[in-house]
């Protein structure tokens, strides 16, 4: 393998790890937010945070180098949304981790010709939709 | 869909399709990788029985609407109506996007409409 090929190969094999690290960093940054703003609760609940971290870590273990980078946000009651977005091709996967176990964790997917929401009862559901996202 | 009881106030004409309305953006509502508005910006809050998404008629009004505003999105009234939603004016500076369900009741429709509204929006101000 030439040096150039090795560099490209290493870059590809590290991209999932880099994306995972960015996603985890964005989740951690949510803990530094003010507790509330004018819209509602801003900082996630411990339940939402633990749910999100567990799913992301286990999904990365399953997907590895193809793990895509997510953006993060909280809802007005302390739940967490993670978004995987592609504009071309148009695809979105959106994981919802609720503020408490009283509500269900779910995942929304959207493409130009379809959309839907599934309950996330286990990591394979998230992995399946991230693999769909990757195409 | 949510039962709406917004009445057209006689003092305000219906909004024309070419009117641009503005939405205050909270922390986390901008996709900083792509500089686009995120879905989060267009959910109704069931906790407070919110019946419409608040919008204003100028960037300045939106900046005054919430503290620590992270940005302002603009969206044309006609684009909102193309989604079978509507925008009802209730004061000289405020209107509401109506017709959305609560995510708690109908997550698929709420997510899809919020995504389509986000995709029709443009970020018009950032700090």
Plain-language structure description:
The complex is a heterodimer of chains A (135) and B (127). Chain A is an alpha+beta fold and 135 residues long. Chain A has one domain (3-134). Chain A has helices at 3-30, 46-63, 123-134, and strands at residues 36-37, 40-41, 71-74, 80-87, 90-97, 106-111, 114-119. Chain A has a five-stranded antiparallel beta sheet. In chain A, strands 1-2 form a two-stranded antiparallel sheet. In chain A, a hairpin with a 2-residue loop joins strand 4 (80-87) and strand 5. In chain A, helix 1 packs antiparallel against helix 2 and helix 2 crosses helix 3. Chain B has 127 residues and is an alpha+beta fold. Chain B has one domain (20-125): Alpha-Beta Barrel (ADP-ribosylation fold). In chain B, strand 6 and strand 7 form a beta hairpin. Chain B starts with 19 loop residues before the first strand and ends with a strand. Mean pLDDT of chain B is 92; it is low at 1-5. Chains A and B meet through strand 3, strand 4, strand 5, strand 6 and strand 7 of A and helix 3 of B.
């Amino acid at each position: 393998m030439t040096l150039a090929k090795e560099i490209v190969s290493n870059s590809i094999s590290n991209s999932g790890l880099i994306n995972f690290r960015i996603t985890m960093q964005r989740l951690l940054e949510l803990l530094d937010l003010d507790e509330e703003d004018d819209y509602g609760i801003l900082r996630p609940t411990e339940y939402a945070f633990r749910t999100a971290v567990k799913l992301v870590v286990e999904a990365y273990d399953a997907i590895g180098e193809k793990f895509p980078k997510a953006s993060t946000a909280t809802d007005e009651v302390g739940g967490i949304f993670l978004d995987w977005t592609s504009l071309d091709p148009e695809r979105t996967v959106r994981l919802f981790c609720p503020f408490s176990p009283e509500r269900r964790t779910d995942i929304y997917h959207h493409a130009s010709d379809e959309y839907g929401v599934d309950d996330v009862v286990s990591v394979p559901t998230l992995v399946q939709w991230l693999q769909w996202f990757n195409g | 869909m949510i039962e709406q009881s917004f009445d057209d106030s006689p003092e305000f004409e219906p909004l024309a399709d070419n009117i641009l309305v503005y939405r205050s953006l909270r922390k986390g509502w901008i996709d900083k990788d792509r500089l686009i508005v995120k879905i989060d910006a267009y959910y109704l809050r069931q906790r407070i029985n919110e019946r419409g998404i608040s919008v204003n008629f100028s960037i300045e009004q939106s900046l005054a609407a919430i503290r620590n505003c992270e940005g302002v999105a603009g969206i044309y009234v006609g684009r909102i109506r193309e989604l079978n939603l509507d925008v009802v004016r209730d004061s000289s500076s405020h209107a509401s996007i109506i017709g959305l369900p609560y995510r708690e009741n109908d997550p698929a429709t709420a997510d899809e409409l919020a995504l389509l509204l986000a995709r029709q929006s443009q970020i018009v101000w950032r700090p």
